[in-house]
Amino acid sequence: MITTVAVLSLLAVLAYLAVAGAMALMQRRLLYLPGTAAVPRETGVERPPLTPVAGEDRLLGWWLPPAVPDAPVLVFFHGNRGTLRRIADKTATWPGRFGIGLFLATYRGYEGNPGKPTEQGLYQDGRTILDWLAARSGTGRDRILLYGESLGSGVATQMAAEGRGAALILEAAFTSIVAIAQRRYPWAPVRWLLRDRFDNLSKIGVVGIPTLLLHGDADPTVPVDHARRMAAAAPSAQLAVVSGATHLDIHQKGGTDVLADFLNGIILKESKPDVRLPSPSSSQIMPDRSNP
What we know:
Blueprint: H1 2-31, E1 51-55, E2 58-64, E3 73-77, H2 84-90, H3 94-98, E4 101-105, H4 119-136, E5 144-149, H5 152-161, E6 167-171, H6 177-184, H7 190-193, H8 200-204, E7 211-216, H9 224-233, E8 237-242, H10 255-271, E9 285-287
Parallel strand pairs: 3-4, 3-5, 5-6, 6-7, 7-8
Antiparallel strand pairs: 1-2, 2-4, 8-9
């Protein structure tokens, strides 16, 4: 009997180690999920076409200069399943509505780019894009609006922590990939296995620029508690919880109005005092002051 129990216990341990080892080896395949490469296309919104931008032998993203010289430029870092086509559709009305330029960023290993995505690699991609904007379009950090969606919140937060922007907007942001993985795989030693951590919570406190955290209260992927903890750690942050929104439908549920209010009150009002963007709908948006 003892021998049987010992054998079963050994088999259970070996099975656990095998699964944990497989997760360790495949972790980046689970984290980074590039979609199909695309080219800019019409979205039904009247605007100048987006222009592909190349640098360092790869695609950096799609670029739409602001219609007004010296207007802000929003640099959009998408999530782990993101594609340029999807975020082009998502942001189609923003240049006209907000009076800004757009740079839709992509990463190594995405959109047919060479290389494999890693945390440090994505940070370097972000730096390359911001350097391109400064060198080729004269867009300095005082005109850069850093926007991070889901996984892209890690890139945007890192760029903000490095002092590379004038404002930071985070949509469906997490405290860290470790926290997300621990919730999804509570039985696995993810804290010791993960190589790419994107520890936003440890960085957000040193971000001194105006910050907006947009989060859905029904987000099943990144629970809203992540945003509340981030807001509590960031003295410059404003937290807006969108009622009924899940992980990536915040702008369909009223999030764009919150973004408009933020840009108007924090960024655009300083340079264009006569411009007033639409205010958010109080029936859909709940400014959140909750403690973590």
